[in-house]
Amino acid sequence: MMTTGPGGHGQTRRLALFGTKGVVSRCRDFTEQALADWGWTAAGPEGPSDVVEDVLLLVSELVTNACLHAGGPEELVLSRSAEWLRVEVADADPRRPRRKVQSDLSRPGGHGLIIMERLAHSWGSEPRGTGKVVWLEVRLSPARGQRMSRP
């Protein structure tokens, strides 16, 4: 489902989700298709777009975290404007995400929030119904969809 925001400047796509089996790849495919439809492709004349790869990794992390810590995601929402992409993953668990304290960063697991902090312009969570939404935003260049430098 796609809706257009005020004045036609933004668009939103929603994907309802049930269960955890295959949900990460479904969300990545959905996101990749939305970005392609919006003119942000993973491979262009200058090679892979870093921002598309970053967004796909960020979607994977959000959805995986919902699977591991919140019983699975209920909805993926992608909203975009000319300069921003917002990704939201809703789940039924009201607990906010928190970073695990790890003494050995070389061990697998527990790096999702670190990745979000490094690749997203901003991220957070907010209560929604009896659960929450974890969101992130990626700033895009209006001209080519490339990530702009952070302020």
UniProtKB/TrEMBL annotation:
Keywords assigned: Kinase, Serine/threonine-protein kinase, Transferase
InterPro entries: Anti-sigma-factor_SerPK, HATPase_C_sf, HATPase_dom
GO-annotated molecular function: protein serine/threonine kinase activity
One Pfam family recorded for the sequence: HATPase_c_2
Transferase among keywords: yes
Coiled coil ranges: none
Start and end residues of each Histidine kinase/HSP90-like ATPase domain: 45-136
PANTHER family: ANTI-SIGMA-F FACTOR RSBW, ANTI-SIGMA-F FACTOR RSBW-RELATED
Record-given protein name: Regulatory protein
Source organism of the structure: Streptomyces pristinaespiralis (strain ATCC 25486 / DSM 40338 / CBS 914.69 / JCM 4507 / KCC S-0507 / NBRC 13074 / NRRL 2958 / 5647)
Record lineage: Bacteria, Bacillati, Actinomycetota, Actinomycetes, Kitasatosporales
